[in-house]
Amino acid sequence: MRNIILFAIKHSKNIVICLFVAAVVIYVQILHRKLNDKNSQIEQLNVDKAHAAIPGNTISYNVLGDSSIDASSSAATVKPSTYKKKLSDSQLLKQLGVNPKAVDVQADMGSRISDSVTLTSISHPDIYTYKDHWFNCRFCLSDSSFTYSVTDSVVMVVNRLYRHHFLFWHWGTEGYQVHVVNYNPHSRLLYNQYIRIDK
Fold first, then answer.
1. Which helix (H) or strand (E) holds 46?
2. CA 162 to CA 174: how far, in whole Å?
3. Which of 110, 103, 64 is nearest to 87 (CA)?
4. pLDDT for 45-57, tens place per residue?
5. From CA 151, how far away is CA 188, in angstroms rounded?
6. CA-based nearest residue to 69, from 117, 129, 111, 21
7. Distances from the Cα of 61 to the Cαs of 93, 126, 154, 181, in angstroms?
8. Contact (Cβ atoms closer than 8 angstroms) between residue 176 and residue 196
9. What angle do CA 143, 120, 183 make, to 5 degrees?
10. Are 71 and 189 in contact (CB under 8 A)?
11. For residue 98, what is the DSSP state?
């Protein structure tokens, strides 16, 4: 027992250094684990945001000067591994011959076309038609046929939201905002999903 005490006193400096190094290593491991947990929580939030972009998503609508409608929503930024495991449509990518690692952005959107129009009879009393730049239809009473064609024109603009602003300098990325403008007045955007793969 006496030898142990003498050894501890003689090498106390080394023992303190070893204990300090062990405490630092344990502290770094705890910080690393917390950082990994936080990163996985952020990644899960981005996955949830991407999944929330399916019908029922929060989309804000604004009417532009030419009466077209701008539908804006937020974008999700995910890591390539998360995209490949949880968000990619592997069957579609396989049919297209695209490797999931090569995908930078995936955008999905859906719209509904509905409106009330007045059909007019032009030459024949059994044939009614309606035509404008976006919608063309013909209804024939004699053979009960209804033919139509719809044209859409959609523009998507994605802008970066900066985290920091000072005078005219902007830096850091907080997220991305997606604006989809559909010029067809008969159509309304129902959902918009924009996934950016952060490489």
1. helix 12-51
2. 5
3. 103
4. 666 655 554 444 5
5. 13
6. 111
7. 31, 40, 15, 10
8. yes
9. 105
10. yes
11. -
Average pLDDT over residues 22-38: 80
- Residue % of the chain over a pLDDT of 70: 81
Going by the DSSP 8-state scheme, the letter that residue 133 receives in this structure is S
The residue written with tokens 């770094």 in the block is: 28
pLDDT at 107 over 50: yes
Inter-axis angle of helices 12-51 and 2-10, to 10 degrees? 70
Average pLDDT of the chain is: 75
The H or E element spanning position 145 is strand 145-150
Buried-exposed string 161-194: b where 16+ CB fall within 10 A, e elsewhere = eeeeeeeeeeeeeeebebbbbbbbebbbbebbbb
> Which residue bears the tokens 């400096």?
13
